[in-house]
Amino acid sequence: MMIDDDIILKAEKVSMLFPGTKALNNVDYKVYRGAVNVLIGENGAGKSTLMKIIAGVQQPTEGHLFLEGQPIHMASTRVAAGLGIGMVHQELNLSENLTVAENLFLGREVQKGLTPINNAEQRKVTMEAMARLKQNIDPDEVVHNLKVGQKQLVEIAKALIGDIKILILDEPTSALSKKEVQILFDVIRDLTSQGITILYISHRLEELMEIGTHITILRDGNFQSEAKVEDIDVPWIVREMLGSDPVSDFLPPNRQFGKNVMEAKNITYVDKSERTLVDDASFELKAGEIVGIYGLMGAGRTEMFECILGKTTYQGTILIDEVPIHSKMKTAQRIKLGVGLVPEDRKQSGIFPVSSVSNNLSVASLWKRLKFRVIADKDECEAVKKTIADLSIKVSSPTVEIQALSGGNQQKVVIGRSLLTEPKVLLLDEPTRGIDIGAKSDVFEMMVKLSEMGIGILFSTSDLKEIMAISDRILVMSNGKITANVERSKTNEEELVFASAQGF
Amino acid sequence: MQTNTTTMKKASGINASHVGLVLLKMRTFIALFAIAGFFAFTVDGFLAPASLIIMIKHISINALLALGITFVIITAGIDLSIGAILGFCGMVAGYLISQGIVLPMFGIAIFPSVWLIVPLVLVVGGLIGAANGFIITRFNVAPFICTLGTMYIIRGAALLVSGGETFPGLQGNPELGNTGFDLIGSGSLFGVPFTIWLMFIVAGIIAYIARKLPFGRHVYAIGDNERAAELSGIKVNNVKIWVYTIAGLCAALAGIVVTSQLVASHPSTGNAFEMNAIAAVVLGGTSLAGGRGTISGTLIGAFVIGILADGLVMMGVSEFWQMVIKGIVIIVAVVIDQMQSKMQYKAAISSQANNE
């Protein structure tokens, strides 16, 4: 093995198999010393898996890692930390009710035997770490009281304790404001000047151009390309990321739309911590039209859907079928007016796991099946059977518990539940999340069929290919704002990527 | 497609694990027969109609409470205050019969008739239940804590009604026109006491609600996945308030029955009854995690606990051992329940795998 001075860490022919999928396929990866190494790719390209392997969270099925030219085997994150590799995960992993210092030393408290924890020492080290980040955060402050950006920095401080050579940042900016991002970038520059190597994952291409020095692109679990940031531009990244495969098109030509079934005017939603999650968004949806909302995580798509369904208090006007509805109107009434939602997180807010497929399908539309205020069994049974057939849900019997079904079939049941309420507007929040490719095209075909029945469909995704495959019109959301509202035929992927970084 | 599923069902009906699953599903029923059979052999006259009726009469009190909180438990909640509501409602009934409604400004007391007292007491129980539901939903208090609090409050209130004294002799006074309260506990129809009729009627009503009304489905949905229920347009808070109201109503009914059987009301009646009721619900296969459970299961659970208790008494087993045995039965039941849901899940997965 030749020792290359520039390369601190190297992965050779790394593969990672999960039941059913190959997350990484023979990937070679180089990490350059003292640089900001950016790793990008679409959702499911294998970025997180590769980072987890480097941080010792997961062990690769095949392949080897070399640190400073020496082969290493990391059985756990502890081993990785011992070798000087630390990772800051995408979600914050702090204990809100503990102080900054306590969080930094969680699980590795300065303490021996039965003696009390050496708080003075912990505080001192915390102060040093904060000084290194040029931050003025009190070690005794309770984490709960910090701003999101400060919490992110505490996470970084936590990773910096000990002798860290490589720091992995997984989408560190997804929850930060523009100002906080700049502070983070200053910190990153400081750290690199101190000789620390940064591994940086993000979806925001503009940011990568600003902070990155080397860029590596993964596509569908394969190594795609590698370049110096100074040699490339954003269109190149988009091309490399998406490849030149033709986008499959699910929409037949010459689609006809009716009148507006939904209109949103100046919707603004500010959450409890006074962050503006939806910022003055206006758009409309016609009968029979499929509108896709593209945006990154945290762009405000889910929150927008919650506004439409009346789950949150918002300002602005929503019109259903050209009739304005009161902003305080409850979810149940909105559903009766014709709004259906298929939520993003199927497990958490979609399915009723221990209930039967039949009950899962009918529960939202029982008010339609009443005869003298009593559920008409026959009516219900027929509706359930019809939906199972229409959506080709594969189930041995409607009485099977839904948790026994595959993800794709569960998703179809959740969509079927909304359909039984006979909606005019169907909201699908990331409808293809966590389902396999075959089921995906099933879901798309179903969407086209429904739109042809005159339902207006609004769906969200963070997958560019999906949005190009199935939308009549595309909205791009970024930082709560709608930054583009274009017909699909008049746009391309690059434009959408640009728009998705414009809201700041 | 349709014939396909039925043939598949037939085919898998023969295999052993399927039979095992059916047996597991029927286990409370089997346990009931096993226990009844055991006592029939070991205790003389156990199956005599007279002793059976007395036993079922005992069971009916616990059954009423258990039926009432089945919905609560299906929504993944709990109600610890039902024993106290039972005691308090008994005291209210006793007070109304023996003291009447005192109007000090006129220096008189009005003695309402039993026909008025019973609905009045039911309203009191229902309102206490509704208050539980309101506190739980409006202020987001954990059901365990809220009903623990109301349990103390209501038990205290029951003691305050009489200063800790018993209201004896609630037959009523013919001159005051408030007789007949004792008939609820002692009367019978076709040789079967009113109390037992009442238990089956209430079970029927609640089972009807569970199966036939949207409300029942909503109860299951909330226990299964509250967020999904909300997004499906279910008025989660309303349903929950009603669920606790039903628990309160049933506890009030049980309070009336107990008071009438004893022809006296004592403020500490019903102490720890909620535990027996919860045990019956759990024995009946309702999951404390919510979303799963049946009314018939609760009824059978109440029978298992009741027959076990009375049978052991008749056998002459000491009260101390009775407690130990009851505890073991509950734990074994829940362990088997866990086994069942695991097997059920596997069976569903495999039948689904055949299909996909």
From TrEMBL, chain A:
PROSITE patterns: ABC_TRANSPORTER_1, ABC_TRANSPORTER_2. The keyword Isomerase does not apply. Coiled coil: none annotated. Pfam families: ABC_tran. GO terms for molecular function: ATP binding; ATP hydrolysis activity. Keywords: ATP-binding, Cell membrane, Membrane, Nucleotide-binding, Repeat, Sugar transport, Translocase, Transport. The keyword Membrane applies. Residues 9-245, 262-504 form the ABC transporter domain. InterPro entries: AAA+_ATPase (IPR003593), ABC_carbohydrate_import_ATPase (IPR050107), ABC_transporter-like_ATP-bd (IPR003439), ABC_transporter-like_CS (IPR017871), P-loop_NTPase (IPR027417). It comes from the Bacteria. This is Erythritol transport system ATP-binding protein.
From TrEMBL, chain B:
It comes from the Bacteria. The chain crosses the membrane at residues 29-52, 64-97, 103-129, 141-163, 183-210, 241-264, 270-288, 295-314, 320-336. It is a multi-pass membrane protein. GO terms for cellular component: plasma membrane. GO terms for molecular function: transmembrane transporter activity. It is found in: Cell inner membrane. InterPro entries: ABC_transp_permease (IPR001851). Its main location: membrane. Belongs to the binding-protein-dependent transport system permease family. AraH/RbsC subfamily. This is Erythritol ABC transporter membrane protein.
